Amino acid sequence: MKKIKLMLLAPSLRGGGSERVMLNLIKNFDRRVFDLYFVLVKKEGPYEKEIPNDVQVFDLNCRRTLKAWRSLIKCIDIIKPDVILSTASQLNILLLMIKPLIPKKTKIIIREGSIPSENIQSNRILWRYLYRKYYNQADVIICQSSFMKKDLVDNFKVDRSKIKCIYNPVNFENINMLIKEKKNPYLNYNKNLQCINILTVGRLSSEKGHRELIKSIPLLKMKRSNANLFILGEGPLKNELFSLVRELNLEDCVYFVGFQKNPFVWMKYADLFILPSKYEGLPNALLEAIACQVPVIVTNHPGGTKEIMKITQQTHRIIDEFTWDDWWFEKPTKKTYEILEENFNILKIVNKYESLILELFEVRKNGEN
Amino acid sequence: MCGILGFLNKSKKFKKYESEIIIKKMLDSIYHRGPDGFGIWSNTQGNLFLGHRRLSIIDLSSNGKQPMTSKTGRFTITFNGEIYNFDEIRKEILKVNNYRFESNTDTEVILAACETWGILQSLKKFIGMFAIALFDDKENCLYLIRDRLGEKPLYYGWQGDSFIFASELKAFREHIDFKGKIDRDVLSLYFKYNYIPSPFSIYKDIYKLPPASVLKMDLTTYEYKIFKYWDIDTTNKFDTSYSDEELIEQLEKLILQSVRRQMLSSDVPIGAFLSGGVDSSTIVALMQSLSDKPINTFSIGFFEKDYNEANFARDVAKYLGTNHTELYVEPHKTYDIIQKIATYYDEPFADSSQVPTFLVSQLAKKDVTVVLSGDGGDELFGGYTRYLLINDFWKKINYIPLSLRKVMAKTINLVESLQIQKFLDSSIQKKMYQIFRGADLLTIKYPEELYNHFVSSWNQSNEIVLGSKPIDAFITSAEVGSLARQLSFYEWMMFVDLNMYLPDDILVKVDRASMAVSLETRVPLLDHNIVEFAWKLPFNQKVRGNTSKWILKQIMYKYLPKELMDRPKKGFGVPVGQWIKGPLREWAEDLLNEKTLKEQGFLNTKIVREKWEEHLLGIRNLQPQLWSILMFQSWLKENQ
């Protein structure tokens, strides 16, 4: 069988979930079946170092996604891929806009990483138009949860039959390896082992709900005076959140630790992981926290979070208010981890992507019925 | 073993990422040569891009990653092959230069050697098989280098504004500037010899770098020149005072040294092809004498008795105590391979032993990553039966004066033109055809012409390729013609084969078949010390009476009993002539379809159909001719 030329397209390697998924896929795609071409609008970001040795990145070197259209056309013209797998809404739409210039036999798969109707806050009318007009042009649309699928169908009239749900993979092997790599990171902040460390991971932007979380910390302090909150991530809201912490006089118990290469040790040694988002496509951080076997609490928000909680049998841990009850801190059972492993292990997810691509060529992967 | 490639972006019309994509595509096309990884490099000016595909043999860590740049930054290399004496060279470098080696690879040793002694001096020290692309930043030059005997392939050529080079032609096809125009003159050479002789390739303006050659490209002027860095000295012979025993002992030492080197320079399991013939048996015997454990040997058997050597191989393996694997190939599996085999050869190639070579490579790859083969023995020590036959034949016809021979030939031609054979019994017809064919031979003036005639499967191959004109290959070149005056006819035939048949047929066959399954083959008899030694030997050491490869056999008898080895030589072929009449007929008919042939416009349809029908009717066995047409058609189908 001739190998399939697979072009993977992403905006950059900044620390986002979509980029992480692309990296995980690229690390695991079967080299005997696919010739991989990894194209980035701009080669930058902390994940750059994680690119495997046998993957070459092609850098279109454009500051803004929309400006990359010309390079993208040229690039596709040279590669002549059999399949393009693209991620991030802007890039997806750009790719679909230039579709008339792409050879007909090239299949386009787009991966939607967020919930579109929540994601488009500015220029709503324009975005709604673009989504409606272009998303149906793709051969396959991959989303991460049934909630996302419903959103695309109901709000953007995307053809239901084109949408496939594939969860984000969790790289257990990598997590378990990295967990062992470093010591308890909280010890650098408080020498007192009695401290309670609460962790949240995510981009510092309004949809992630940090503001509300910080506002509830005084209540937490009343219940547990030895509790600290650690916020991992960078983002535009940083200064505002800083001032909020100062305003509430929480400087000695709320720590902004920025982007961390190894977030898993932070997860492992935390007493509680909290996801205060307002919506989520399918939060990788939550999956990873469960993989690190830390107790998790999530706010009741639209998106894939509920699906994860349902699969891992933790729906009772979806909360409406930050009440900081004692049961929040109870350790999860081993079963929770096992269910997660069963459903989200990377090989299983990669296999789903591979089969989906091969099905487009009417080839079935060996060993599958 | 690996794959190398690259290109010069003369007009700088490609952006960096565009060039990188092109290189990556080229690398993907030769994935089979090195599935363990790849690397891409470009110079600061952005007009040179190098790529490498890796099959890990030595230093399996990522330290061996190529393209690799030397310590001072002057040289950057992408390299395919093995330098067997790299350890010795490394020690030599350390004596004169404080080079800090970071890996245990021969690649780094090549770079350090170039830093220490310069490129040409270093080349003299290397023992091995290699194809190298080396960029010298100081001189702003690119060097393409091929090993002395042409074991590793390297193609190059200008296509528009891009100068492209690669281990295989497949990679060229991925380059945007590749034009892919089939060279009809070269195609007619292919039909003549059943392979494409150096320096040509099937495509216009793309060439094979001849063995022992360096191509130096100036990256400022974009002009290149090619020169040889090594050659066989055919005049330098041992003086007659050496006894047989002394020479045998010296040769044995040399071969042992070569086998030892080739066995040692590998961090992966190693084995050997064993056909049961003199060359492979000798190599296996020496390998086993150097190893405490049984070595792995492999052979392929055929159910067709006339073509089967596996039982001989088994006897040799049993005697030497090797760990022997043999596979009797089911006929239908062979048919499957035949239908696919053209895809593994990036040029049309029609030596039917390509089929068993592929099968034995596939078999060996299951257990080992490197194999040693006995190739080269026939060319070096005069082993081919045809040498004796043609030599004798020439002696016989040379008794008759040329003028008389011409009259005889004319008479035969006249009889042929009367077409009376058509009314005769088919057995008499066959005999008459033989005589008609022989008529041409009578008019031959020089023995060299006779040899050329003998090794050609279509003498008038221009007739079959439409729009082609005759061109010279190595065998008919003026340079080789003048050598005929210095050498005996027998030695001249060996010299021609060593320079043409060996690199362009035998070694291509072995490289492509083994690389298709990611297996590295090594050829210990082609160590240049052995080649030089062989050419210094007096002729009677190679051929004594009717015994060819005399000296090699004396070495072999030290390890294997004479009774076991005394039997007639067999070819490594398969009965494709019979198969295309039977089980493969449908496949052949499809490829020789009149309409398709006409549409393609390369071949003279009338001749092709005539030959095909003659073969089917059993008037003549036209296996070599038809096999070359089928392989070309099959190649064309895959590559157009």
Automatic annotation (TrEMBL), chain A:
Q: Which domain of life is it from?
A: Bacteria
Sample GO molecular function, one term:
glycosyltransferase activity
Tell me which residues make up the Glycosyl transferase family domain.
197-323
What residue stretches are annotated with the Glycosyltransferase subfamily 4-like N-terminal domain? 16-173
Q: Which UniProt keywords apply?
A: Transferase
InterPro entries found in the cross-reference section: Glyco_trans_1, Glyco_trans_4-like_N
Q: Answer yes or no on keyword Transferase.
A: yes
Q: Gene3D superfamilies this protein is in?
A: Glycogen Phosphorylase B (3.40.50.2000)
Q: Which PANTHER family match?
A: GLYCOSYLTRANSFERASE
What is the protein named?
Answer: Glycosyltransferase involved in cell wall biosynthesis
Organism per entry: Thermolongibacillus altinsuensis
UniProtKB/TrEMBL annotation, chain B:
Q: Where is this site: Important for beta-aspartyl-AMP intermediate formation?
A: 375
Q: Does the keyword Isomerase apply?
A: no
**Which pathway or pathways does this protein act in?**
Amino-acid biosynthesis; L-asparagine biosynthesis; L-asparagine from L-aspartate (L-Gln route): step 1/1
Where would I find the Glutamine amidotransferase type-2 domain in this sequence? 2-220
**Reactions catalysed, as given in the entry:** L-aspartate + L-glutamine + ATP + H2O = L-asparagine + L-glutamate + AMP + diphosphate + H(+)
Molecular functions per Gene Ontology? asparagine synthase (glutamine-hydrolyzing) activity; ATP binding
Q: What class of enzyme is it?
A: ligase
Q: Which GO terms describe its cellular component?
A: cytosol
Print the keywords alphabetically.
Answer: Amino-acid biosynthesis, Asparagine biosynthesis, ATP-binding, Glutamine amidotransferase, Nucleotide-binding
Is ATP-binding a UniProt keyword of this protein? yes
Q: Which residues bind L-glutamine?
A: 106
Its family remark reads: Belongs to the asparagine synthetase family.
Q: Quote the protein name from its UniProt record.
A: asparagine synthase (glutamine-hydrolyzing)
